[in-house]
Description:
Bound molecules: thiamine diphosphate, iron/sulfur cluster, magnesium ion
Strand content of chain C: 15-25%
Number of helices of chain A: 13
Largest interface: A-C, 38 and 35 residues
CATH superfamily of the largest domain in chain A: Thiamin diphosphate (ThDP)-binding fold, Pyr/PP domains
Radius of gyration of chain C: 17 Å
Structural class of chain C: alpha/beta
CATH topology of chain C: Rossmann fold
Radius of gyration of chain A: 21 Å
Largest sheet of chain A: 7 strands, mixed
Strand order of the largest sheet of chain C: 3-2-4-5-9-8-10
Number of strands of chain A: 15
Strand content of chain A: 15-25%
CATH class of the largest domain in chain A: Alpha Beta
Oligomer: heterotrimer
CATH superfamily of chain C: Thiamin diphosphate (ThDP)-binding fold, Pyr/PP domains
Distance between the termini of chain A: 50 Å
CATH class of chain C: Alpha Beta
CATH architecture of the largest domain in chain A: 3-Layer(aba) Sandwich
Distance between the termini of chain C: 33 Å
Strand order of the largest sheet of chain A: 3-2-4-5-7-6-13
Amino acid sequence: MEKVMVKGTEAIGEAAIRAGCRHFFGYPITPQSELPEYMSKRLPEVGGVFLQTESEVATVNMLYGAACTGTRVMTSTSSPGFSLMMEGVSYMACAQLPAVFVNVVRGGPGLGDIQPAQGDYWQATKGGGHGDYKLIVLAPSTVQEAVDLTVLAFDLADKYRTPTLILADGLLGQMMEPVTFPEFRDLSTLPDHSSWAMTGAKDREPHIITSFDIDPYILEKMNLELVEKYKEIEKNEVRWEEFMTEDAEIVITAFGTVARIAKSVVEMARKDGIKVGLFRPITVWPYPYEPLKKLTEKVDLFFDVEMNMGQMLEDVKLAIGDKKPVAFYSRMGGVVPTPTEIYEALKKEIGRRV
Amino acid sequence: MPKVKGYIEIDQERCKGCGLCINACPTKVIEFSEGFNSKGYHPAEAKYLDRCIACGFCYRMCPDVCITVYREE
Amino acid sequence: MRKLLYKMPESLSGKEFTYCPGCHHGIVHRLVAEVIDELGIREKTLVVAPIGCSVFAYQFFNMDGTIAAHGRAPAVATGMKRARPDLYVFTYQGDGDLAAIGTAEIMHAANRGEKITTIFINNAIYGMTGGQMAPTTLLGMKTTTTPYGRDAQKDGYPMHMCEFLKEAKGVAYLARTKVTTPQDVEKTKKAIKKAFLAQIKGIGFGMVEVLSTCPTNWGMDPISAMKWLEEKMVPEYPLGIFVDKVGDEK
Ligand SMILES: Cc1ncc(C[n+]2csc(CCOP(=O)(O)OP(=O)(O)O)c2C)c(N)n1
Ligand code: SF4
Ligand code: SF4
Ligand code: SF4
Ligand SMILES: [Mg+2]
């Protein structure tokens, strides 16, 4: 297939359509409005439905309703909007409804700004809404990967009957890159949800979809079912990338956009003869604890870089424990660190340790 | 005009003894039973079935769908 | 020979209602089920239960169902209907659900002319959570959060949803009824049927607001509660058909 130049947000939209998504509900918010705009134009061309909602609260509940019928459905938003969706996401996780969410993260907390940030990592990976639940969270770092992970997000959502999140940021959203799109999925080949979806109780018992039971023992059972599912996902779906880690003495840990910048840092350091590598989680839940832990055998220093106060840092430390030191560098509020400043910080860290 | 004769059945186990059927019956067919059902309510009882005119008022007012109404033909 | 006239409709599951004795939720459930039976659409109908005393509605109706987050039933129904326009979707909501936390969703669903049907139970109180003030609570009415009576200066005025919604162009049928007498019950059933026909005919949004009793939280026996509804609620919430673009039933 030929490569085309597209913007991150639009690439995600096109990938969703090719993955068989025909329903999009969304509310405008910078820096992701190009995605709903793209869908409003594209979905009618393929017989799909785009609806601009009255709020993100309505959005997530429309996703709930559409997902109940077993169709592929998606929304995208940015940080404050995703916060508003949390109640519904929790409902969907418990009711085991597949859907794909995109959070193009911006600076926070509060209204924050509209620049790229990673401050929603905890919200994405540790809950965000109420109760015991997890989302599958995919963190692309290039436009091509955003395309591939969007398709994967739908497949995983269907396979595990769970809401799945693409954790992006404004930089990726706005970036133009050449990508190859997958072929259009034949809708008749999409997973069969007829055993549980609400399609009308004709010649069968009614299908009930709920996140509710008044009996704590039954609700506990529902919880345990989720726990089993999450274990299964942790077993099967951990994804990560390692870049020049084979001989690395120092490993930078970073996800999403920052990981992309960190790649340049690795190259800069290598030119100076410093053996630096990069460890990049692609699924930030389930988190690649084991492969990261494995690196402690030969790496002397881990250097975590993020655009937040150190949120993934907790997972990095969980993986590494006290086996090796973990240093940290970050910018916040929508400030994107340059390769040079990260490299300088890294060198300072090395200097402090010799 | 020939008088319509009706017949009703009350699911007394289902009944919550609210009295809405008694209140609605124009011919006073229904009264509370002396006994209790397993929920602890005095259920409604069709005591004077011979007066029933099959109007269906009791059915319409019953919030717990306890009543079935027939017409004798 | 005995000819069967009235019995439990097929669109009810037969499961015993969880409502208090004399609570009007039960009457309205049965009416919705009768209408669905008569229209012959049970196998194509989806029910969206709310959060409130009728949270179990999905168990009482004999059809596919779910529970929406508090107030969000119209959004859930919108998602379903947009995904499956060939099915019929109705929401069943209380006054806290629809007229407080879910005001935005009902307004916008109605205004978009969403082809869904809403059954709105106005009992002037939060039943499920134990009798707190609802947006529809009458002035002067005592609830567990208006122990001195609802005061307009402090708590605002009773909320008139039909009067607000009748201005929305997407509304195809809108009525306010009560179910305190067998005649009212019949009228309410006709209204519910029309609210479904508005959807079936693809004209737009349909809603029936039913003034209902909550004997438990009003602190009355079921018969006194009906009297109170007639005397106090009806003057505040006039009955009537606010919008009817459905025309005759055929
Ligand atoms: C987000 C959220 N806020 C509050 C509640 C608690 N809650 C449950 S039901 C209810 C009020 C229900 O009242 P109403 O809609 O009038 O229904 P009724 O019980 O009177 O039929 C409230 C406040 C909730 N479940 N979710
Ligand atoms: S059908 Fe009419 S007359 Fe007969 S018991 Fe019921 S209300 Fe009374
Ligand atoms: S109306 Fe129904 S529940 Fe109430 S007393 Fe009569 S039969 Fe029982
Ligand atoms: S609390 Fe009120 S509304 Fe709820 S079931 Fe009891 S009477 Fe009905
Ligand atoms: Mg209420």
